[in-house]
Amino acid sequence: MQVLLQTDSNIEASQQMADHLKSIAKDALDRFGERITRVEAHLSDVNGHAKTADDDIHCTLEARLTGLEPVIVKENAGSAHQAIDGAMRKLKRAIAGVLEKHEPRSHRTPGEALAAADEDLSA
Hints:
Blueprint: E1 2-7, H1 15-29, E2 36-45, E3 57-65, E4 71-77, H2 80-101, H3 110-122
């Protein structure tokens, strides 16, 4: 799985931030295996350098799934790390739901698959 980080001109894309993204992407999405080919993170500061809100860092995550449409989630938070973490939780849940819909032979109901994704997030 390829993991890419893009930022706007108001957020510095450090190696530490890229490593954080890769680490949590691997932890959160590894169970989906080869079905995910790429994850792209887009970080932006909604208000530029003027810090006026607690949740002005915006993170959009896009996961490319083999043979399916991309899955896209968004999260706002007070820091880049918080925005990435929140968006990754949403992405994991969204991917579980999409894959469950496209695997009719699964023995789990969609509700059970989402509950399993939620359980993985709390671990």
